[in-house]
Amino acid sequence: MSTLTKQTLSHLDWLEAEAIHILREVAGQCANPVLLFSGGKDSICLLRLAEKAFRPGRFPFPLMHIDTGHNYTEVTDFRDKRAAELGERLIVRSVEDSMARGTVVLKHPGESRNKHQSVTLLEAIEEFGFDACIGGARRDEEKARAKERIMSFRDEFGQWDPKNQRPELWNLYNARSHKGENIRAFPISNWTELDVWQYIQREALELPSIYFAHTRPVVRKNGLLQPVTDLTPAKPGDTVEDVLVRFRTVGDITCTAPVESDADTVEKILAETATTTITERGATRMDDQTSEASMEQRKKEGYF
After folding, report:
1. Same domain for 237 and 187
2. Which helix (DSSP H) or strand (DSSP E) does residue 17 occupy?
3. Is 89 left (phi over 0), alpha (psi -120 to 50) or beta?
4. What is the pLDDT of residue 85?
5. Strands (DSSP E) along 45-95, which ranges?
6. Which residues contact 178 (CB under 8 A, 6 or more apart)?
7. pTM score of the predicted model
8. Which stretches are tagged as biased composition: Basic and acidic residues (predicted)?
9. Residues 246 and 118 occupy one common structural domain
10. What one-character DSSP code corresponds to residue 234?
11. Distance from the CA of 276 to the CA of which of 15, 95, 131, 166 falls in 20 to 30 A?
């Protein structure tokens, strides 16, 4: 996109146009791509961008979700409903299937399955022969993601080497790969959380209900709110509180925390997001707190 064109578009229009360009580049350069759709807000934006990129035709790729088996039902129900509304093929592969095959072995029954999604994802890539996975990761979420290219190269083992990535000059992208290699494409990499919510508002996108304020039993631990669920019950000595919360990001129940909030509309969430000083993963993800390099290590092993 030329500098002149960028100057004549609004900020959101430019982000949208660039993301559509990236989606079309993936479709044009890759033989068998797939779009990763979890039912979360970022992948919901990706679906709208794909509609604008390829309608009235069908998407040139299926949708896929790697399910831990411990996802919030509000989100997985929305995932299924949205895919059906679009009439697009949805592939679901579960970490539980990998556990049954013996390719994922938990250290103990209560271990989070989140990091083990890498194994299931790589198995699905091999099963279907995907040469590109389109995801909704953004650079502002976490420092390892800030290192990643828009077209992120993964080797034949599905691994990411941050020191061995392709240059991306202007808006020229190289999504080509050899057989067995894989590209992870991130069309909204340069978007911020605020950009996402502004796009949701502008496009009037429907979201799972847990993104909006609701009362939920939680336990305060290490500066986070741990939801009290069948999977994450309160322990002896814990103080359970009913707190008005919402989720800034959604994922595995065992490692995704809500934040205190009374924002029950997109407009109120936009006002909160504009003033927050903590990234959404920093405020909500228990799995990222094990180490400053935990996300980077997972990505090197094949994570999204």
Report:
1. no
2. helix 11-29
3. beta
4. 97
5. 63-67, 90-94
6. 156
7. 0.88
8. 295-304
9. no
10. P
11. 15
**Nearest 10 degrees: Cα torsion 219, 224, 230, 236:** -40
> pLDDT tens, 160-195?
787 788 888 888 888 888 888 889 999 999 999 999
Tokens of 109: 């029954």
Cα-Cα-Cα-Cα dihedral of 161, 166, 167, 173, to 10°? -130
Please report whether residue 91 resides in a domain.
yes
Q: Are residues 155 and 283 in the same domain?
A: no
Q: Is the preceding omega at residue 56 within 30 degrees of 0, hence cis? A: yes
Q: Is 175 left (phi over 0), alpha (psi -120 to 50) or beta?
A: alpha
Do 16 and 143 lie in one domain? The reply is: yes
Which has the closest alpha carbon to 54: 91, 12, 22, 15? Answer: 22
| Domain-located, residue 3 | no
Those residues with Cβ within 8 angstroms of residue 85's Cβ, 6 or more apart along the chain or in another chain: none
105 is a domain residue: yes
pLDDT tens track for 135-159: 999 988 877 767 788 888 888 877 7
What is the distance between the alpha carbons of residues 8 and 3, in angstroms, rounded to a whole number? 9
Both 232 and 144 in one domain: the answer is no
**What is the spatial distance between Cα 262 and Cα 265, in angstroms, rounded to a whole number?**
9
Q: Note whether 158 and 123 are same-domain residues.
A: yes
Range of the domain at 252: 208-288
Residue positions counted in the chain:
304
DSSP tag of 230? S
* Domain total of the chain: 2
